[in-house]
C-alpha cells in the first residue's frame, strides 16, 4: 500500500512540477485529496507532536495568537521529562551538558528568532520568541543566549544542576554512542528527534517553531539544523511552512526547509515538495539516500504532507476535525534511480 502510494506520489510529483496542479487521486491519507484543508491546521514531527498540536489548537481556539499556539505547543514537548531529545531531559553532549537549539518564525512580518547551544533553560522556544520580539537580532548562542533568557525572566536552572540532571543521560549516551562517531548510527531515532511544529490559522496566516537537544554525544558547541532559519524551519506567509527532523548536518548543507517551501511555491503539494527536496539532496549528496532526514510541510490552503529517507517517519496532524499520527512515505535509492551524483 505504502509502496504503490509512494510510486504514485513520485509520478504525480513530476507531473505537478510542470503543471502546477495536483492529480485528484493524490494521497488522501496525507491530506492531498482536497485542494484546501481544514483550518486551523497544526502539523508536527513525530508522535510526540500530537499533544503539542492539540495544545496549540486549544490556544488558538481560546483566542490566542499563532505564536502563542506554536510556543505553548512546543513547551509541552520541552516539558516532557521522558523525552530524550527535546528539552533538558535530552541526551547531553560529549561533556555531559545538555545544550539546546530552538527557533521560531512568524509568517506575518516575516520575523524570526533563534537560540543555539543554550544551557539550563528549560524552554528554549520561549527564548527564541523573546529574541524575535525583544531584540533587533535573529540568533543568540551559548552563554549570551542563556543570560538573555534569564534577563527576560524566563525559567532557568543552574548549569551545575543541569549538569547533574544530565549525568544519567550522559552515561547512557556514552554507552550508546561512545561519544561522537565519524559515522552516525544507522537508526538516528535512537538519539535524534526534534519537535518542529507548523501552524496555519483560519485567516491563512502561518507560523512555526522548532526545538531539540540535538545529536546525543555531540562535540560541545555543535549546532544542528534546528535553530537555523531555512534549514530546520522556514515559514513564508505567501506560500507555506516546512520543518525538519533527523541528522541536521544533512539538512543544513542544503537549506532543506527553505527548499521545501520553494517547491511549494512552484506549485507542488506539500508532500511532493518534501519528496522533491529529499530527491534533490540525495542527487547532490555523496551519501545518496543514506541521510536520515525527514520533512513535514503545510501550505496556505491547509494541505499538508511529509517525507523521509529510509522508512520515512511518523508525523502528527491536528485540525478541529481530527488529530492523528500518520506515516510519511520513505525514499530509498530503489525508488528514484541514480543518486549521490557528486560521489567520487
Ligand atoms: C539536529 N535535527 O540537531 C536535529 C536533531 C533531530 O531528529 O532532529 N533529530 O541535527
Number of distinct helices: 10
Q: What would the principal axes of the Cα set say about the shape? A: globular
Count of strand segments: 13
Helical coverage, percent range: 25-40%
Task: Give the tally of structural domains.
Answer: 1
Low-pLDDT residue spans: 1-29, 179-191
Please identify the oligomeric state.
single chain
Strand content: 15-25%
Helix-and-strand structural type: alpha+beta
Q: Could you please say which CATH topology applies here? A: Glutamine Phosphoribosylpyrophosphate, subunit 1, domain 1
Largest sheet: 8 strands, mixed
Question: Ligands in the structure?
Answer: N-hydroxy-L-asparagine
CATH-defined superfamily: (Glycosyl)asparaginase
What is the level 1 CATH name?
Answer: Alpha Beta
Q: What Rg do the Cα atoms give?
A: 19 Å
- Mean pLDDT over the residues: 84
The CATH architecture assignment turns out to be 4-Layer Sandwich
Order of helices and strands: HEHHEEHEHHEEEEHHHEEEEEH
Q: What is the first-to-last residue Cα distance?
A: 36 Å
Amino acid at each position: 500500500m505504502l509502496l504503490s502510494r509512494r510510486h504514485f506520489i513520485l509520478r504525480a510529483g513530476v507531473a505537478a512540477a510542470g503543471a502546477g496542479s495536483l492529480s485528484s487521486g493524490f494521497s488522501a491519507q496525507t491530506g492531498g485529496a482536497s485542494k484546501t484543508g481544514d483550518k486551523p491546521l497544526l502539523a508536527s514531527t513525530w508522535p510526540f507532536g500530537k499533544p503539542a498540536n492539540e495544545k496549540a489548537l486549544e490556544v488558538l481556539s481560546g483566542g490566542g495568537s499563532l505564536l502563542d499556539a506554536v510556543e505553548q505547543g512546543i513547551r509541552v514537548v520541552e516539558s516532557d521529562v521522558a523525552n530524550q531529545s527535546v528539552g533538558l531531559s535530552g541526551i547531553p553532549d560529549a561533556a555531559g551538558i545538555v545544550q539546546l537549539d530552538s527557533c521560531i518564525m512568524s509568517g506575518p512580518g516575516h520575523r524570526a528568532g533563534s537560540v543555539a547551544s543554550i544551557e539550563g533553560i528549560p524552554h528554549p522556544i520561549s527564548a527564541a520568541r523573546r529574541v524575535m520580539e525583544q531584540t533587533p537580532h535573529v540568533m543568540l548562542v551559548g552563554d549570551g543566549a542563556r543570560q538573555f533568557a534569564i534577563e527576560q525572566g524566563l525559567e532557568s536552572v543552574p548549569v551545575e544542576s543541569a549538569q547533574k540532571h544530565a549525568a544519567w543521560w550522559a552515561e547512557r549516551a556514552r554507552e550508546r554512542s561512545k561519544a561522537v562517531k565519524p559515522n552516525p548510527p544507522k537508526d538516528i531515532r535512537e538519539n535524534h528527534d526534534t519537535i518542529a511544529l507548523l501552524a496555519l490559522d483560519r485567516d491563512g496566516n502561518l507560523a512555526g517553531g522548532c526545538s531539540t537537544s540535538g545529536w546525543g554525544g555531540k562535540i560541545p558547541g555543535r549546532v544542528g539544523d534546528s535553530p537555523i532559519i531555512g534549514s530546520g524551519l522556514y515559514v513564508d506567509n505567501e506560500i507555506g511552512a516546512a520543518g525538519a527532523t533527523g541528522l541536521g548536518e544533512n539538512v543544513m548543507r542544503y537549506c532543506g526547509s527553505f527548499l521545501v517551501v520553494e517547491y511549494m511555491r512552484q506549485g507542488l503539494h506539500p508532500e511532493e515538495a518534501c519528496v522533491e527536496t529529499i530527491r534533490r539532496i540525495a542527487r547532490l549528496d555523496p551519501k545518496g539516500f543514506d541521510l536520515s532526514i525527514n520533512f513535514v510541510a503545510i501550505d496556505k490552503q491547509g494541505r499538508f504532507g511529509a517525507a523521509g529517507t529510509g522508512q520515512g517517519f511518523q508525523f502528527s496532524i491536528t485540525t478541529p476535525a481530527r488529530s492523528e499520527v500518520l506515516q510519511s512515505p520513505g525514499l530509498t535509492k530503489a525508488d528514484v534511480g541514480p543518486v549521490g551524483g557528486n560521489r567520487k
